[in-house]
Design a protein that fits this description.
The protein contains 14 helices and 16 strands. The chain is α/β, with parallel strands linked by helices and 464 residues long. Strands 4-10-9-8-7-5-6 form a seven-stranded mixed β-sheet, with helices on both faces. α4 runs parallel beside α11 and α8 runs parallel beside α9. The structure holds pyridoxal-5'-phosphate (PLP). The site of pyridoxal-5'-phosphate has 16 residues, from α5.
């Protein structure tokens, strides 16, 4: 008889199925000729169990920093179940109750924003932002010709070709070009490896002022948007200095360039405030988000805009000339009901359990404990905000020469051998995939932080 209970399995059959059928994300598959892929089958709190019954402490919140409320939340599963039974799906051209409620919740969290456009993934949320900029550059007289998007070196904005075009990570882009016209890079803002070889605060925040130079070179009348992560995530945990965004904001305002804040990683409490950009005096025109939105129990993303942006697309449908001047974009799963129910419940948990506050308190503790390791060999820089911190490893603390890819793999293996899953910059930069990162669910306790710190010490103290 054909099996219908999909959760029943025979371990060997599943392991074989993985090897025979699955093509995993971001993995060189040659290794699976001799190695078995880890298959995660259960999770509770911060712990996950693999198919062989081995338990791990997950300090990556699901690998990509998105299970904000931890594993095993039955109330989220129940909310999705109830919604699917009542009304599973209708395209986002119409409304549905949980989407309306969740949009209201998002605007409560972003009081200076006005309209919410839903889609499925972080990449897609950013694509919407780019399409908004581009279409506005055709249909709004005062934005005519302002189609270009600026992006920052080391930032990541997604996997699709436009999102990659806006990404400042050379290894992620390698072999996938040619990229789209009209995407232009500005310098990164990592003080540890200052692109101008300067030291804060004497640097006068040259990395921010450099935006003016790029604009001058490209022509302000050709640029419609600048996309940035509030704090660079996958590019190596880079919180800009506090003066950075006010300078960026002023330059953008002066040239009528919309500031797009990619909160895909930083949103929903990751950095100890609800939004990453709240650490700065800055007021973006467009905010994109995904990952923590529904704690990744369901896929969901959003592009949230100010009224001024939205108004650009309010056309008169009876006017033959402007009839098509509305945002002609659709996404089959964007805004469907199940993920909204998950997002509403996940956000309720974040609020009720004060997880943003926990992210700040335990995040400070995490960073403090990491600083204790600063004098160990290999540890070049320690940086982070909230529950989002990392260590940059170097072979030589003076010259800042990075450790090798092989040495980084060894360090990661040593963490795994202690049953702890941590993250790292991965296939992003030539010679700089050497930053280990820690971005656990926001429910993490001090005791769990202590376990991680002890494991890092062991991993680093043993000779490479
Ligand atoms: C800052 C940022 N933006 C966008 C994305 C793309 O999100 P997704 O993988 O959901 O398309 C990511 C993914 O890691 C990200 O880190």
């Amino acid at each position: 008889m054909e099996k219908t209970n999909w959760l029943d399995y025979d371990t060997d059959e599943i392991v074989k199925g993985d090897k025979n059928c699955l093509w995993h994300h971001l993995k060189p598959h040659k290794v699976f000729e001799t190695q078995e892929q880890m298959i995660i089958v259960e999770g509770e709190g911060l712990n996950v169990t693999d198919i062989r019954g081995r338990e791990y402490l997950d300090v990556t919140a699901g690998g990509v920093w998105s299970i904000m409320v931890g594993y095993g939340r039955e109330s989220i599963a129940k909310a999705v179940y109830d919604q699917l039974v009542k009304m599973p799906y209708f395209a986002g051209v119409y409304g549905n109750v949980p989407a309306i409620k969740f949009a209201e919740k998002l605007l409560e969290k972003l009081p200076r924003m006005d309209k919410v456009y839903f889609s499925n993934s972080g990449s897609e949320a950013n694509e919407k932002a780019f399409k908004i900029v581009r279409q506005a550059s055709r249909i709004v007289p005062e934005r005519k010709g302002k189609f270009k998007i600026l992006f920052r070196d080391r930032d990541y904005h997604g996997t699709t070709i436009a999102a990659m075009s806006a990404t400042g990570q050379i290894q992620r882009k390698q072999d996938f070009g040619p990229f789209l016209d009209g995407f232009v890079e500005i310098p990164h803002c990592c003080c540890y490896r200052c692109p101008f070889d300067k030291t804060y605060p004497e640097c006068d925040i040259e990395c921010a002022h450099a935006l003016e130079d790029v604009i001058a070179k490209e022509g302000a009348d050709t640029i419609g948007g600048l996309i940035v992560e509030p704090i660079t995530a996958g590019g190596g945990i880079i919180p800009p200095v506090k003066e950075y965004y006010p300078i960026i904001q002023d330059i953008c305002k002066k040239h009528n360039i919309w500031l797009i804040m990619d909160e895909v990683v930083c949103g929903f409490g990751r950095t100890g405030k609800f939004w990453g950009h709240e650490h700065y005096d800055v007021d973006p025109d467009i905010v994109t988000m995904a990952k923590g939105l529904a704690s990744s129990y369901e896929p969901l993303s959003a592009t949230v805009v100010k009224q001024e942006v939205y108004n650009c697309f309010l056309n008169d449908p009876s006017n033959e000339e402007t009839r098509l001047n509305y945002f002609r974009d659709i996404s089959t799963y964007g805004g469907c009901a199940g993920p909204m129910a998950a997002a509403l419940e996940s956000t309720r948990i974040i609020e009720e359990e004060e997880l943003v506050e926990n992210s700040q308190v335990i995040g400070d503790y995490f960073l403090e404990r990491l600083q204790e390791l600063k004098d160990l060999p290999l540890i070049g820089d320690i940086r982070g905000v909230g529950l989002f911190c990392g260590i940059e490893f170097v072979r030589d603390k003076k010259t800042k020469e990075p450790i090798s890819e092989g040495e980084m793999a060894t360090l990661m293996g040593r963490m795994m051998a202690q049953n702890i899953i941590v993250g790292r910059t991965n296939s992003s930069f030539n010679g700089l995939n050497t930053i280990m990162n820690f971005a656990p669910s926001l429910t993490i306790t001090k005791e769990q932080v202590d376990t991680v710190i002890a494991a890092v010490r062991i991993a680093v103290e043993e000779k490479l």
